[in-house]
Amino acid sequence: MNREKIKTAYIDYVLSNNEQPKSVYVFAKSLKLKEEEFYHYFNSFESIENGIWLDLIRQTADNVKSEEVYEGYSARERILSFFFTLIELMKAQRSFIIYSIKHSGKGFTTPGILEKAKEQFEGFALEVLSHGIENNEIVERKFISDRYKDALWLQFVFIVNFWINDISENFEKTDEAIEKGINVTLDLMSRGPIDNLLEYGKFLAQQGKNKIKFPFTA
Amino acid sequence: MKEQTSIPVSKVERSVKFVTTGAKVGVNYLKHYSRKLVNPDATKDQLNEDNASDIYIALSQLKGSALKIAQMLSMDKNILPKAYAEQFSQAQYSAPPLSGPLIIRTFTKYFGKAPEKIYDSFKLKSTHAASIGQVHQATLNGKKLAVKIQYPGVGDSINSDLKMVKPFAFRLLGMSEAELNVYIKEVEEKLLEETDYELEVKRSLFFSKACKHLDNIIFPKYYPELSSKRIITMDWIEGIHLREYLKTDPSQAERNRIGQALWDFYNFQQHELRQVHADPHPGNFLITPDRKLGIIDFGCIKELPDNFYYPFFAFVSNPLGDRKKTINYFKQLKMIFDDDSPEMVEFYYQNYSEMIGLFARPFVQGEFDFSKPGYFNELFVLGEKVSKMKEFKQARGVKHFIYVNRTNLGLYNILHDLGAKVRTDTFKPHLIKEDKEQ
C-alpha cells in the first residue's frame, strides 16, 4: 500500500460522495488497510489534500525545469511557462480541484489545504526571482522585493480561481488571463517610472539638506 | 523587436484608447489651423499625416480585429486621403509577438507536443506578424516551413472592437452609423471567418488547386495534419514584399508579367469560381527570386451569389447600355429603391452609372495601363465628390459591394503601385442570356 493509492482512493471517494469519509478508520478499512499504515503517510484527510496540491506544484516545477528551452528563458518566461504547465496538469484532475477549492472555505488567509503547496510554490518563485534579479530583468527594491513572491502567489490564487470558472473552449480565456496577468506582474517588478520617481525624490531630499533657495516660484 | 508586455485588456481600456485618439485628432486640427495662421500655405496634407499617425499608433496597440480594420481602411486609398492610407498600410508589419511559453502551450494544446518535437527545428521568435497571428519559421524533413499561430481570444475581441471602431470609422468616412449595420455585420462575419484557421486551410487547399494552371503564380503547400484551429503549417515561400521588390527597379516587361498574373488570379476567381480572395493587401503577396507571384493568405474569401454577380457584371461589361435595363440592375442591387421618386431615380441612375462606369473602365477596354495616375485621380475626385453629397449619406447598395469593391479597388491599387499594363480580357464576366442580347 503506498501513498499514491491512498491519494487515488481519497479522490475517488470525495468525488463520488461529495464529502470526506466519515473517519480515517472507515476509510482505511475500505482500503483493507490498518489505520496506522494510513498515519504513516498522512495524519488527516486534510493532509491528503495538502499532499495532492503539493505534488501538483512539485510536478509542474519539475516539468517546466526539464524542458530544454528552460535554461534560455527569462524570469518572465519561466513564470509564464510554470502557469501554462500548471493548468495543463490541473486539467487531468479538474473535478477534484474544483471540489477541493469549493470545500476549502472562504477567507482572507490561504486555505489549510494549500499550505504545503504555497511553500513549494514560493521556493520555485524565489529561484526564478533571483535569476531575474541576477539578469537585471527584475529590480531589487528595499522592503518591496521581499513581497515579490507574494504577488506571484496572488497570481496563483487568481489563476486557479479563474480556471475553475472558465467555460471557454480549451480554457482559452485562462491562457489569456495568464499571459496578461503575469506580464503585468513582471512589468511592475522591472525597472519603471516608479523607480525613477523615487530616485528623483531622494535626490531632491538630499538637496533640501543643503537648503537651496529658489529665486522664484513657478 | 520588443515583445509586447501588455495588451489592452478590457473594453474600457480599449475605449480609452479611442477616446485619447479622438482628442488627439482634435489637437491635430488645432495644430493645423494655428500652423495656417503662421503659414497660410500649409496644406491639409500635413494635417492628415498627423492624424493618420496618431490614429495608427492607437490602432496598432489594439491588435486583432482593430488592426484588421486599420488594414481595411488602408485599402480604400481612393476614399481616404493619401496620408491615412500610407500609415495604415504599415499595419501588417508591426504587431509585437506573443511570449514563448504561450506558443509552446498552444502547440501542446492542439497536438499534445511541443513545437520542437513536431518539427525538426522551430524558431521561438516569430519572424513577422500576420494581423491576427504571427509567423514562425520551422523545418521538417529538410523543408523550410512557415507556421502561423493565432493570438488567443481574437474572436471574442472582434465584437467589442467593432463596436469601438464603428463611430470612429464613420466619423472618418463621414457617414452615419444607424443605417450601416448590414454592412458592419458583413464585415464582422468575414472577420470571424478569418479566425477559423481550419477553414482557412480548407480554402487554401481548394484555391491553390483550382488556380494551379494560372501562369506565374505560386502557392505554398499546406499541411492539414500539422494545422489546427489556431495553427497553420505551410511551405515557406522565399521572396520579398511588393514594396521592397519595387525598390529593385524591375523592368517594365517584368512588372507587366506580375501584374498580369495578379489580374488573372483575381478575375479567374471572380468569374470562374465565383468566390474570391478578398484581401488584396500588399502584405499577402510575395515576389519570388524567379520573379513569380507567391500568394500566402486565404483568410478572407468573398463568395459572389448569382443575384449579385449577374446584375453587377452585366452593367460592368456594358456601362453605356440601355437605361431601362440599367435601372433594373440597380434596383436588383438595391442602389435604387422601388419607392424612389422619378427625380431620385434619375439622380442615382446618373451618379451610379458614372461611378460604376469609371470602376468598369479597365474591364471594358480589353487592355489597361494601371501606371497612369490620371485614372486614379478621377476615382479619387469622384470619391471626394460623392462623399460630400448628402444623398449618399443614406446607405444604399447590397452588402456584397463592400468586399467586391475592396477586392477590385485593392487590385487596381496594387497594379498601380506595380505600374503594370495588363490584358483585362483574359477572363471575361459571364452574362445570362437576356443580358447578352441587349
From TrEMBL, chain A:
- What domain of life is recorded for the organism? Bacteria
Quote the InterPro entries the UniProt record gives: Tet_transcr_reg_TetR-rel_C_sf, TetR_C_23
Pfam families on file: TetR_C_23
The residue ranges of the Tetracyclin repressor-like C-terminal domain are: 78-204
Transmembrane residue ranges: none
Protein name per Swiss-Prot or TrEMBL: Tetracyclin repressor-like C-terminal domain-containing protein
Q: What is the lineage of its organism?
A: Bacteria, Pseudomonadati, Bacteroidota, Sphingobacteriia, Sphingobacteriales
TrEMBL record, chain B:
Q: Which InterPro entries match?
A: ABC1_dom, Atypical_kinase_ADCK, Kinase-like_dom_sf, Prot_kinase_dom
Which molecular function term from Gene Ontology is one that the record holds?
A: ATP binding
Q: Which segments constitute the Protein kinase domain?
A: 121-438
Cited Pfam families = ABC1
The protein in question is named ABC transporter
Organism expressing this protein natively: Solitalea longa
